[in-house]
Design goal:
Layout (H helix, E strand, L loop, with lengths): L6 H9 L3 E7 L3 H12 L5 E4 L14 E2 L11 H17 L4 E10 L6 H8 L11 H18 L6 E3 L1 H7 L9 E10 L2 H15 L4 E4 L1 E6 L4 E5 L5 E11 L5 H8 L12 E8 L2 H7 L3 E5 L5 E7 L2 E5 L3 E2 L10 H14 L10 E9 L16 E6 L8 E7 L5 H16 L24 H12 L3 H11 L4 H7 L5 E2 L2 E5 H10 L5 H8 L10 H15 L3 H19 L4 H15 L1
Parallel strand pairs: 1-2, 1-10, 2-7, 4-12, 10-18
Antiparallel strand pairs: 3-6, 4-6, 5-6, 8-9, 9-10, 11-14, 11-15, 11-16, 12-13, 13-14, 17-18, 19-20
């Protein structure tokens, strides 16, 4: 089993590093990708994230890994090509978390939307409008050309009204046709981000990753970092600073760039999503995504996710990325859009078991509608000057699907600044639990062999492999000795959660509930379970009782504010009062 650094050991390493060739500020997917690319070239980069890995927008995506069908309409053919290539690379390199997703588009008429689509393509209109079967078929035919040339997905299919009704009897009466094609979805984006971090540190022993570490200021020669858990500060002199702050890029530049370089780079938009516990809707979807246009012509999605249904999303301009939540009006908007395509399906607000939202770090734009802002990525270089000794490379825009390519471009720019050359490519490099992960046809035999080797039931091994891919193997040897389930959740054991806490840079209760596991987003949290896990983590991380109570309060407040779980806090606190009285 590989040696894992504790947080104190990581802090000790940072104390010993006064100089670094590269400091990456921002632990979202693009910063992490850049860190991995550099580490694989032997560059001892340091990456810091003020919160947890993939906590903000990189953990709030629609869970889609897609080629960008709608970008064809705005003429972004290069982005579609890149997205299709990177989608298929993720299907291969992260096959434990990324899977094909059959997608259906309900269509109202045959020829609608042609004039408006032409005007959008020529940049003569920003107005959204619903598209007819002819336009959608034309787009999907172009999409197929990219897929056949650069990818491996099946061709699209257009259904008649009768065939559509046969497959989708619950569609609204306005639906006259439907078209189906394939993209992909991701089951655990936050875990994949963490695995990229671990792969980087494994590739270069001097590379260092620290969550809960914030860049707070600079004096032109050094930058000051602050441990947001302890308050301890560190000074570090970088040769290159990579600003991967996402929606916070402009704020971070105010700390590290001269006033002359403080141009506005980001014009973020908020995307909110709902997780629905609705068995009827789940059965109707039957493993497919519905990608549709609501009454306004805005794109919405609906697809199965971990036994629930994911619905989204909104696209709202925001100026303050720190305080975004899924508002009641957004929840109503998404549910109303759902009723537009499935009018007979009653989805009460009580079916919403989790909400999440993030700010897309889109480039600053004067476009009237946020949907018209490019999802492409770019690099903005701020060279050193008399007030700042280092070069600053800003990572602007980007989408989850193309993180590898964006990180590759950023790393290559940094390598040129350092006078170094690339010697390792990531195009065919498996990620984390995707290494040595068998193809679907070979998985049953592999799982059966593991079950026999470690004396565990086949369903349990299958469950762990689904969660962690090949990274489940070192965990199996521990579970062979003790795999007793939690008292309040039969699908997790104390040994499993203790392993995640000790090996995956877990610092806060929320890290484990929201990002290392799917307990929160899957709608599986209960007050007794939260309390049980807090006691387990306190024992593992040596928290005092006071620290544990603080963690409970902070976690429940965050779950209520950012994820709509308002009923947890009072019950958890009542349980705590009872727990204390019984001691």
């Amino acid at each position: 089993m590989a040696t894992v650094l504790t947080r104190n050991e990581r802090l000790d390493r940072l104390r010993q590093r006064q100089i670094t060739p590269v400091l990456i500020a921002g632990g979202g997917i693009n910063g992490i990708s850049t860190f991995r690319e550099l580490a694989l070239q032997g560059i001892p980069a340091i990456i810091v994230e003020r919160d947890d890995w993939c906590q903000a927008a990189s953990g709030a995506l629609s869970r889609m890994i897609h080629g960008g069908l709608r970008y064809l309409e705005t003429g972004e053919f290069g982005l579609v090509k890149e997205s299709v290539i990177e989608r298929d690379r993720l299907l291969k390199n992260a096959s434990h978390y990324v899977f094909p997703l059959r997608t259906t588009v309900p269509v109202e008429n045959f020829s609608g939307g042609m004039i408006n689509a032409t005007r959008r393509f020529l940049r003569l209109s920003d107005k959204p409008a619903r598209r007819g079967a002819l336009l959608i078929k034309t787009g999907l035919s172009l999409y197929d050309l990219y897929t056949r040339q650069y990818g491996s997905m099946p061709k699209h299919q257009v259904r008649s009204e009768a065939a559509t009704r046969d497959r989708w009897p619950g569609f609204a009466p306005w639906v006259k046709y439907s078209a189906s094609y394939y993209d992909a979805w991701i089951s655990a984006p936050e875990r994949l981000g963490l695995e990229l971090v671990e792969d980087a540190e494994r590739a270069c022993s001097d590379a260092l990753a620290l969550n809960y570490m914030q860049l707070i200021s600079s004096d032109g020669e050094t930058v000051t970092l602050k441990d947001t858990l302890s308050g301890e500060q560190f000074r570090l002199q970088p040769h290159v600073l990579v600003n991967a702050g996402g929606a916070w890029i402009d704020q971070l530049n105010q700390h590290v760039a001269p006033k002359s370089a403080r141009q506005k780079l980001i014009g973020g938009t908020k995307g909110s999503h709902l997780i629905l516990d609705h068995p009827e809707l789940l059965r109707m979807l039957d493993g497919e995504m519905v990608y549709f246009e609501n009454q306004e012509g805005r794109v919405c999605i609906l697809f199965p996710w971990a036994g629930k249904v994911l619905a989204g999303s909104t696209d709202i301009r925001v100026d303050d990325p720190d305080n975004v939540v899924c508002e009641a009006a957004e929840k109503a908007y998404i549910l109303e859009s759902l009723r537009f395509v499935f009018p007979e399906v009653v989805v009460p607000e009580s079916a919403v078991v989790y909400t999440f939202c993030g700010v897309r770090p889109l480039p600053a734009s004067d476009a009237k509608l946020s949907g018209q802002i490019s999802r492409n990525h770019s690099l903005v270089m701020l060279p050193p000057d008399p007030t700042r000794a280092w070069s600053t490379l800003c990572l602007v825009g980007g989408k989850w699907t193309t993180f590898r390519r964006f990180g590759e471009e950023a790393a290559d720019r940094v390598l040129r600044l350092l006078g170094e050359k690339r010697h390792t490519s990531t195009t065919e490099l498996a990620i984390g639990g995707g290494r040595d992960f068998p193809a679907p046809a070979a998985q049953p035999a592999w799982i059966a062999q593991l079950a026999q080797q470690y004396a565990l039931p086949v369903p349990r091994v299958m469950q762990l492999v689904k969660r962690y891919g090949s990274r489940a193997v070192p965990l199996l040897s521990l579970l062979r000795d003790d795999d007793r389930p939690l008292h309040h959740h039969a699908d997790y054991s104390a040994t499993e959660l203790r392993y995640l806490t000790e090996h995956e840079q877990v610092c806060q209760l929320e890290d484990l509930l929201v990002r290392r596991t799917s307990l929160a987003i899957g709608g599986e949290l209960t007050p007794p379970l939260i309390q049980e896990i807090s006691l387990l983590m306190a024992q593992t991380l040596n928290w005092s009782e006071h620290q544990r109570i603080q963690q409970l309060q902070r976690c429940c407040a965050s779950l209520a504010r950012f994820h709509g779980l308002h009923g947890l806090y009072p019950t958890v606190m009542q349980q705590e009062a009872q727990h204390v009285s019984e001691q």
